[in-house]
Amino acid sequence: MRKMAKQQEMTLLGHLHELRDRLVKTAIALVVTTLFGLIFARQALELLIAPTGEHQPVALHPTESMISYFKVAFILGIVLAMPVIIYQVVRFVMPGLTPQENRYLYVLVPGATISFAVGVAFAGLVMLPFSIRYLQGFQSDLIEPTYSIDRYISFVTAVLFWVGLSFETPLIIFFLAKMGVIDVGLLTRSRKYAILIVAILAAVITPTPDPFNMLIVMAPLILLYEVGVLLARLA
Predict the structure, then answer these.
(1) For residues 225 and 198, is the Cβ–Cβ distance under 8 A?
(2) What's the CA gap between 144 and 52, in Å, rounded?
(3) What is the crossing angle of helices 169-178 and 99-122, to 10°?
(4) Residue 139 zone, left/alpha/beta (φ > 0; ψ -120 to 50; rest)
(5) In this predicted model, what pLDDT tens digit does every residue of 77-128 receive, in sequence order?
(6) Which of 147, 170, 163 lies closest to 206 in space, CA to CA?
(7) CA 67 → CA 38, 72, 152, 177, distances in Å?
């Protein structure tokens, strides 16, 4: 019993050491890519501020402009570091992949990176301009829309991150189907629950309460789920 407990303790310590190593590698990748993202942070910041039109955000604190600049660089860093993040997560969650299963990583890693980048682009170029214009027009005769740059960028980057993450749904479904965790029958039977979950996610992600902007988020998420079902069928 004592020997078994010692082996279990060593196994737990081994997992903790592996988790630490993978977190360190992920952190190093994020630092490097964020530093690289600083080069393009100004252009990205201009793009994100563009939907406000003449109502440009203001800095209410001396450090707000700098903090916002680094937040935008960090989002760019996440996009660039996504291959490392996905690889480290998969290798930790599923350490015993066979050589055949390892080949799937060559599709999953770049595919997840592209999907996340497309999601971020969709949120920044399609979803946010509609949402910001709607929010600015709401009771604009009574309230002048003036935003703090720090809060505005925090709001925008949160939307970019969660929409980008949701765009990875098809590849996650494909990978789980390849691993035998889920199958097409389960996905088909769960479609109504998936739509309900998508509606809840859209309500949480969408920055405005109107159904039009909510549908802008729901439509691609439902389409992504159906693409995931198709990929699971192919798997």
Answers:
(1) yes
(2) 12
(3) 170
(4) left
(5) 998 998 888 888 877 776 666 677 677 777 778 888 888 888 888 888 888 8
(6) 163
(7) 12, 9, 12, 41
SS3 183: coil
Q: How far apart are CA 75 and CA 41, in angstroms?
A: 9
Kind and range of the H or E run holding 45: helix 41-49
- Residue 81 vs residues 25, 54, 145: alpha-carbon distances, Å: 11, 34, 35
Read off the pLDDT of residues 143-168 as tens digits, 9 standing for 90 and up: 777 788 888 888 888 888 888 888 88
How many C-beta atoms lie closer than 10 Å to residue 3's C-beta?
7
- Angstrom distances, CA of residue 130 to CA of 26, 55, 163, 192, 216: 34, 15, 15, 28, 9
Q: What's the one-letter identity of residue 147?
A: Y
Half-sphere exposure of 51 (CA within 13 A, CB side): 21
CA contacts within 13 A on the Cβ side of 73: 19
Quote the pTM value: 0.75
Taking alpha carbons only, the member of 64, 96, 81 closest to residue 179 is: 96
Instruction: State the helix-helix crossing angle for 128-137 and 211-234, rounded to 10 degrees.
Output: 160
- CA distances (Å), 51 to each of 3, 45, 80, 103, 161, in order? 64, 11, 24, 42, 18
Reading the block at residue 145, the tokens are: 């829309």
Residue 200 DSSP SS3: helix
